[in-house]
Amino acid sequence: MSTYTIKDLEQISGIKAHTIRVWEQRYNFLQPKRTETNIRSYSGEELKTILNVSLLNKYGFKISHIDKMSTIQMEEKILGLNQLDAQKEKVVNDLIKDMVSLNMVSFERQLDNYIAQKGIEKTIIEIIFSFLERVGILWITNHINPAQEHLSTNILRQKIILGIEKLPNYVQTPKRVVLFMPEGEFHEIGLLYVHFLLKQRGIGVDYLGTNVPVVDLKFLTEFKKVDFLFSHITSPAKNFKFNKFLDQLGQIDKSIPIVLSGLLIQEHKGNVPSNFQLKRSLSETIDFMNSI
User: Fold this and answer.
1) 25-45 residue pLDDT tens
2) What's the pLDDT tens digit per position in 238-282?
3) Domains of the chain: which residue ranges?
4) Which of 15, 132, 221, 256 might form a disulfide with 138, Cβ 3.0–4.6 angstroms?
5) Domain 82-166: which CATH class?
6) Packed helices 84-101 and 104-118: angle between N→C axes, nearest 10 degrees
7) Residue with the larger pLDDT of the pair 96 and 237
8) What are the distances in angstroms from CA 245 to CA 22, 115, 218, 251, 288?
């Protein structure tokens, strides 16, 4: 069974760790276990509880009142929330709960229901994007169990590809972006989301996908005009050497801007060649897209 740290709960629920600690001291809805070194450990059920509590508290319910509610009463109150933003957050929370419970039938049904009501584009923007941010799949993979990640991201991958296909094929700029991931990197969900956002903005995309040797990139740039090379690196193979990868990319035409994002980019502290751009967050990546 998966367990979560207080930082995981903070990331996923949006409630600050300090606030969670205060709630634990004053109320009874969270009862974390502690390790021998006194580090808190939360179960999947407690993660679901904090999601319910945070949503109700955000939309007007006092913590002291929530503390007296049963799980069923919390769910009933959540169903009664009328605010549009609250309804969207409820869907995202339900997806997280289904992921934690490995209930992929319900997970996909939630997405399909929203697609039927709002369309695939709004589902990606309003629901999938928020889900990816909350659980950290888009930029980091430390918050969830690999089985949970693979089951949920494979479904999301299908929906994002559907969204990409549904977008109109119009190009507002003559510039094109080549999307790729290095050899040994197969975590495609972040790159697919970038593909969706680029196409949505009318920016041309050449999608090479996962596990691309640098020699293939070099061949492409020699025979085809390339305006940007973009790679999203989340969790490559264990033998992946980032500095070696940078050196290999440096052998490509230095007039071509190379944009890198993902977990390894967040952690990189060293210098990079002048034609490299490191995007350490999704907002920085979106700023890049808007500048094309």
Assistant:
1) 899 888 888 877 888 888 889
2) 888 888 999 999 999 999 999 999 877 877 787 888 999 999 888
3) 1-81, 82-166, 169-291
4) 132
5) mainly alpha
6) 150
7) 96
8) 45, 39, 13, 10, 22
